[in-house]
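Design job #97: recover the sequence.
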């Protein structure tokens, strides 16, 4: 009797990984007249579905040499100024935006088979807005904003641990000031696309484009 374990099954080929989307559809007649209203509707459904971090969005920027970079940040608000997030103003993303404020955002809600794609221009928020949000953060997050020299090279993890401990001693809980090097951006959109997965890769894509006088037009795109 052969007691040797069976050999493991080979991993699936990446080329063979695929999902057919059939959860919902998106007709242009059923969308809101403005992309902000449509986004709030979809975000509401994402929140109701209890997705993990539905406010996570990919932020794409371009540096002075034309090299794009991408990372995930968290949406912390949306108003007439655009999509709002916060970061260290010395980070790579902030340096990119200083030289070229044009950027793009992508929300992926894969459980709902949806994406929202945003193209626009980022502007720094007034300091009072950043201070209001900063004071709403947990004390540890406030200390973390001070401790991080975001995107800069550091010697090791212990350097960051020691820096956090020193700043915790320096700033008592409830009395952490807003750093001068930290604050918010609002991405003012010029285009917002709503993408709904459909069978056979024939996805629904509805594009809102900013026109003259601040009005929005709607168009269906080929998948």
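Job complete. Output follows.
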């Amino acid at each position: 009797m052969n007691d040797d374990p069976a050999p493991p099954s080979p991993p699936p080929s990446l080329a063979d990984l695929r999902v057919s989307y059939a959860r919902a559809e998106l007709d242009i007649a059923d969308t809101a007249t403005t992309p902000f209203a449509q986004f709030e509707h979809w975000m509401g459904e994402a929140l109701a579905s209890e997705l993990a971090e539905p406010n996570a969005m990919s932020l794409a920027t371009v540096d002075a040499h034309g090299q794009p970079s991408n990372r995930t940040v968290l949406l912390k608000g949306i108003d007439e100024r655009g999509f709002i997030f916060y970061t260290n103003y010395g980070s790579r993303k902030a340096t990119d935006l200083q030289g070229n404020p044009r950027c793009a955002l992508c929300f992926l809600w894969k459980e709902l088979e949806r994406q929202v794609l945003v193209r626009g221009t980022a502007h720094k928020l007034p300091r009072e807005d950043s201070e209001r949000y900063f004071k709403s953060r947990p004390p540890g997050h406030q200390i973390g904003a001070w401790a991080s020299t975001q995107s800069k090279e550091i010697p090791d993890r212990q350097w960051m641990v020691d820096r956090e401990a020193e700043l915790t001693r320096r700033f008592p809980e409830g009395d952490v000031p807003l750093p001068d090097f930290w604050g918010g951006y609002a991405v003012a959109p010029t285009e917002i696309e709503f993408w709904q997965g459909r069978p056979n890769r024939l996805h629904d894509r509805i594009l809102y484009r900013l026109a003259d006088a601040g009005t929005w037009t709607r168009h269906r795109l080929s998948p």
